[in-house]
């Protein structure tokens, strides 16, 4: 038996197995990067359900030429520096894995023009072909911001490619990812194009009213019209958002969105806490819909639980659970449906 160190390409491909499950996972990682870069406008272009092309264009801070190659390397990040930074994460990314992983299973071009640098008109592209870890740097004329293009996903990992589903299915997953990210970042505008056609346009929302409209557009006006708005805090915990009134139940987990400090999560503690508040109010087998934002000190929540960062761990899960159950319960009792469906009709497209 001989022990050998994995080549960087193979190590990256193994890591990619954890975060890059399908085209929508690439979209999620790229959107998180754009948001971390302070983007206000993000365009997503996908061809063939993302299997052929995923392009994310943002107007964020960009990356300087000298850093482009490093950005594609594994364990390279601008978001944390030392162990203590892990105690409180303020960005969506921090693992320094996404671009390295994606570029190991697809043909990736990372183009950027940094707002910080003084490079005249030109931006730069780092081109990685997914065959090895070599990167080619070329000038590219572009506005400030970053463009990431991911072509031929899984072209060099046939085992993964086999699991790609029909174009439509992959597209629907991408749309769902964009919905989650857009709900998490109301101040950012999103445009989605599929096979060259605009399929979704989500303008930025600044006021509470605009946010409400956005929830109607993204989730559904039907949800919004039968929902109760809540906004409560106790000490350092705040919960706000929209919950379906007890008359408006559903039989699937659709339209259940929870965000913790701006991150979309699927968390058992949180879902359980919400369900418990509805317990005696819904017929058996029926579940609520909700868009809820939990805000708390980043030190009280660990997001470094799973590579996809969908899961979180609270340092005091019981307190968070009880706060949520209590807050949702109180608002359900008061039963104030604040929106009249007729007022929303004009919002409907
Ligand atoms: P992470 O997000 O965990 O830091 P990534 O592999 O996703 O790791 O990205 C690596 C680095 O590349 C980031 O830390 C950031 O500095 C830079 N980067 C990636 N995407 C963008 C973007 N859209 N705009 C600006 N910088 C970016
Ligand atoms: Mg990232």
UniProtKB/TrEMBL annotation:
Residue span, DNA mismatch repair protein S5 domain: 215-333
Taxonomy, superkingdom: Bacteria
Any GO BP annotation: mismatch repair
Cellular component GO terms, alphabetical: mismatch repair complex
Keywords assigned by UniProt, alphabetized: DNA damage, DNA repair
Molecular function per GO: ATP binding; ATP hydrolysis activity; ATP-dependent DNA damage sensor activity; mismatched DNA binding
Function: This protein is involved in the repair of mismatches in DNA. It is required for dam-dependent methyl-directed DNA mismatch repair. May act as a 'molecular matchmaker', a protein that promotes the formation of a stable complex between two or more DNA-binding proteins in an ATP-dependent manner without itself being part of a final effector complex.
Family, as annotated: Belongs to the DNA mismatch repair MutL/HexB family.
Protein name: DNA mismatch repair protein MutL
Gene symbol of the encoding locus: mutL
Residues included from the entire protein: 1 to 349 of 592
């Amino acid at each position: 038996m001989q022990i050998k160190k994995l080549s960087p390409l193979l190590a990256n491909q193994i890591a990619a197995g954890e975060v890059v499950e399908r085209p929508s996972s690439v979209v999620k990682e790229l959107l998180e990067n754009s948001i971390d870069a302070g983007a206000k406008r993000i365009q997503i272009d996908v061809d063939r359900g993302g299997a052929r092309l995923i392009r994310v264009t943002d107007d964020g801070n960009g990356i300087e030429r000298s850093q482009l190659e490093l950005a594609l390397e594994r364990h390279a990040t601008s978001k944390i520096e030392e162990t203590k930074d892990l105690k409180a994460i303020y960005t969506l990314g921090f693992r320094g894995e996404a671009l390295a992983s994606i570029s190991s299973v697809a043909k990736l071009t990372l183009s950027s023009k940094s707002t910080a640098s003084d490079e005249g008109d030109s931006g730069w592209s780092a081109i990685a072909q997914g065959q090895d870890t070599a990167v080619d740097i070329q000038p590219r004329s572009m506005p400030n911001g970053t463009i990431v293009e991911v072509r031929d996903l899984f072209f060099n990992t046939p085992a993964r490619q086999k699991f790609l589903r029909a174009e439509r299915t992959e597209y629907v997953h991408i749309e769902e990812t964009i919905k989650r990210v857009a709900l998490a970042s109301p101040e950012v505008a999103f445009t989605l194009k599929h096979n060259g056609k605009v399929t979704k346009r989500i303008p930025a929302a600044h006021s509470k009213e605009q946010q409400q409209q956005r929830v109607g557009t993204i989730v559904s006006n039907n949800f919004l019209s039968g929902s109760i708005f809540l906004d409560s805090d106790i000490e350092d915990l705040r919960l706000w958002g929209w919950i379906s009134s007890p008359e408006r139940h559903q039989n699937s987990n659709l339209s259940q969105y929870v965000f913790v400090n701006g991150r979309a999560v699927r968390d058992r503690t949180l879902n359980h806490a919400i369900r418990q508040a509805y317990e005696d109010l819904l017929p058996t087998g029926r579940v609520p819909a909700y868009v809820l934002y939990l805000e708390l000190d980043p030190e009280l929540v660990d997001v470094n639980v799973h590579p996809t960062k969908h899961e979180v761990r609270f340092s005091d899960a019981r307190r968070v659970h009880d706060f949520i159950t209590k807050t949702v319960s109180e608002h359900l009792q008061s039963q104030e449906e604040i929106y009249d469906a007729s007022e929303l009709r004009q919002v409907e497209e």
